[in-house]
Design goal:
Elements lengths: L23 H4 L1 E7 L4 E4 L1 E2 L8 E6 L2 E6 L3 E6 L18 E7 L4 E8 L4 E5 L5 E5 L3 E9 L4 E2 L6 E2 L14 E2 L2
Antiparallel strand pairs: 1-2, 1-11, 3-9, 4-5, 4-8, 6-7, 6-11, 7-8, 9-10, 12-13, 12-14
Length: 177
């Protein structure tokens, strides 16, 4: 005797779904942006494209590099003619030359560095938010990293991002060992 097949339908309403969030102080970092005009702008908190869980990316030849911003102290944007976004065509200079200095003191020099978008959001004094184009920046310094590194007990990796579970193996992350 055959058993009837049952179909389970699951409806998820995005408007009612709320995910737990880490405290704001653990997810943001502030610093300073030095514009190409020479003017320095203090930043209370970086937003879109420059959050702790974002990356600076580079491509040289066929190799792709991803560096978590939680590990970065400073980014020097050396190419005033680039938008610092990805472009597979060689028609116009979209990615640009940059130096990325990490918290451990090491640095990386990339000929074709880029971000997800050509601008980022910055919260300035008194809570005012502003969009700033990477092309207008000479240097971005992350002065006050406010991040708690979490450690994966399975793969032994550390994450400075808002993950509660390891993105590699799914293990629950713990405070740094």
């Amino acid at each position: 005797m055959r058993r009837p097949t049952q179909v389970l339908t699951l409806t998820l309403l995005a408007a009612t779904l709320t995910l737990p969030r880490l405290a704001l102080a653990e997810r943001q970092m502030g610093g300073e942006v030095q514009l190409r005009t020479g003017k320095a702008r203090p930043i209370d908190a970086f937003g879109d494209n420059l959050r702790l869980y974002d990356y600076v990316m580079a491509r040289d030849k066929e190799e792709q590099t991803f560096i978590p911003l939680a590990d970065v102290v400073e980014i020097q944007l050396l190419d005033p003619d680039a938008d610092y976004v990805f472009d597979s065509s060689k028609v116009s200079p979209k990615s640009g030359e940059m130096v990325v200095i990490l918290r451990d003191g090491t640095s990386h020099h990339f000929q074709h560095g880029y971000f997800r978008d050509k601008e980022f959001t910055a919260r300035l004094d008194k809570g005012k938010e502003e969009k700033i184009a990477f092309a207008d920046c000479a240097r971005i310094r992350f002065i006050n990293h406010r991040v708690q590194l979490l450690h994966c007990p399975k793969c032994d990796q550390e994450y400075g991002s808002p993950y509660a579970y390891c993105p590699v193996d799914g293990a629950k992350l713990a405070a740094e060992k």
